[in-house]
Backbone:
């Protein structure tokens, strides 16, 4: 028994020392997260774009503009108004947006860049600052991370003391995110200390996730061995404390005692961090694979027999008009200001009943087939999601979406206006998502407000950090 106890001590020290630096990195960056995401988060004037309907009806239909510019096929189009004119925003088969005046049919040079600048100024409500730089970004980086989801985006950098950068997705007239100098510095620190981006730069994401998972396992066994030692020796610790107090001796091992006592207090919180973090990494490794192929379509200009100006929707309600192709037909996809999406056949003008649900189910089946998932038999339910919840959280960015639920428990969230798969939630994904938001991010404290939740999570991280430092101090003292 004595040998077993000594071995527990030995392995607890080895595992604790192995995890010491990672624990310090994770807890310090965890302490900084509320400042980055809440208290020191930059403020922007507007976060949602509300287009103002054109004062006058466009003089030309999209068919006339396409014919005037000899465009026989394209991927999609939209209608936007800015800088005192209305434009058809045509996405070519080369994935480049071109802008044509809806009144004259002439192309607007650098139209996409100009529209991105217009939107950036709209969101910041800054019409005077100079634009320091504007560039089309097709990949994520340290300042525009994968959590933002939207690509490609225009990065519009303002020449201001706060160094404001705004990321714009022109196709949907929305903002990906915005950063000032403070947030950019915090993002850099967080990605290096918390998500270990330096490992991804060395060996890729899979290498990073494997290394982090190994460290998580070491932390877990360090925690379990520490609790085991306390259970095996608690009578000895209690007797030693009583004898010291009876003899009125100085507490020479107070560092060891604080390490044990504080470790016992924060052990549950450390367990929630470790289990949810490890589970998160396991699921990421499980889902690691080729990037999801996006749905691509090619529209023949001749298929637009019905004018887009003749659709039975009031101009004052129209937010945007796109065109989609599925089930061997082409439809105008009309989004209104009430988040309703209607579909009108481009050959006949007839409205497609439950068109958005039909398109969402068609896209979900497309993505399921692309991923090689077997067909599921049974009733499929579809419902529109207009706000984020515990399963489809803010991290997914896209709204509104259609939730396509299959009998086997899979939920596929489809943004029909972009034909994109927003996310897929199945058994293991659902369990991981809930464990991460409740055990790692403490969403169970949301009832008390974001500030209270952040304070509790910071105290938990601080407790874990103090236990580690006291443990290291105890190790040094033993030397």
Residues:
């Amino acid at each position: 028994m004595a040998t077993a106890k000594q071995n527990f001590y030995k392995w607890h020290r080895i595992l604790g020392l192995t995890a010491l630096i990672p624990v310090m990195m994770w807890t310090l960056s965890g302490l900084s997260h509320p400042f980055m995401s809440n208290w020191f988060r930059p403020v922007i004037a507007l976060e949602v774009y509300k287009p103002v309907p054109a004062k006058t009806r466009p003089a030309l239909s999209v068919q006339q503009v396409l014919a005037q510019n000899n465009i026989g096929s394209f991927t999609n189009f939209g209608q936007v108004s800015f800088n005192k004119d209305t434009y058809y925003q045509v996405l070519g088969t080369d994935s480049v947006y071109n802008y044509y005046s809806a009144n004259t049919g002439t192309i607007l040079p650098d139209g996409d860049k100009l529209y991105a600048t217009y939107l950036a100024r709209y969101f910041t409500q800054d019409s005077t600052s100079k634009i320091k730089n504007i560039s089309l970004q097709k990949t994520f980086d340290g300042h525009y991370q994968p959590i933002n989801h939207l690509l490609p985006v225009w990065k519009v950098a303002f020449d201001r003391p706060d160094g404001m950068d705004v990321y714009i997705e022109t196709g949907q007239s929305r903002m990906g995110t915005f950063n000032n100098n403070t947030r950019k510095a915090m993002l850099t620190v967080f990605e290096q200390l918390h998500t270990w981006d330096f490992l991804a730069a060395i060996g890729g994401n899979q290498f990073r996730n494997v290394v982090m998972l190994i460290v998580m396992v070491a932390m877990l066994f360090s925690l379990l061995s520490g609790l085991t030692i306390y259970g095996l020796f608690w009578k000895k610790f209690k007797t030693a404390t009583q004898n010291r107090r009876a003899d009125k001796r100085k507490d020479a091992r107070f560092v060891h005692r604080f390490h044990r006592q504080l470790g016992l207090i924060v052990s549950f919180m450390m367990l929630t961090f470790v289990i949810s973090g490890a589970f998160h990494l396991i699921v990421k490794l499980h889902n690691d694979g080729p990037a999801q192929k996006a749905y691509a379509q090619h529209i023949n200009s001749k298929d637009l027999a019905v004018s887009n100006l003749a659709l039975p929707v009031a101009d004052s309600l129209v937010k945007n008009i796109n065109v989609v192709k599925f089930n061997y037909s082409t439809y105008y996809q009309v989004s209104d200001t009430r988040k309703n999406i209607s579909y009108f056949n481009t050959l006949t003008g007839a409205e497609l009943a439950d068109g958005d649900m039909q398109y969402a189910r068609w896209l979900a089946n497309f993505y399921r087939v692309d991923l090689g998932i077997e067909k599921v038999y049974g009733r499929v339910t579809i419902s529109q999601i207009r706000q984020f919840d515990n399963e489809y959280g803010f991290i997914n960015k896209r709204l509104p979406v259609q939730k396509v639920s299959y009998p086997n428990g899979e939920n596929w969230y489809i943004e029909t206006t972009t034909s994109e798969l927003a996310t897929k939630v199945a058994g293991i994904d659902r369990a991981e998502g809930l464990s991460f938001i409740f055990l790692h991010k403490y969403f169970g404290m949301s009832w008390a407000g974001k500030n209270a939740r952040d304070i509790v999570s910071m105290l938990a991280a601080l407790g874990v950090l103090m236990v580690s430092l006291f443990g290291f101090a105890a190790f040094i003292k033993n030397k």
In short: The longest strand covers residues 318-326.
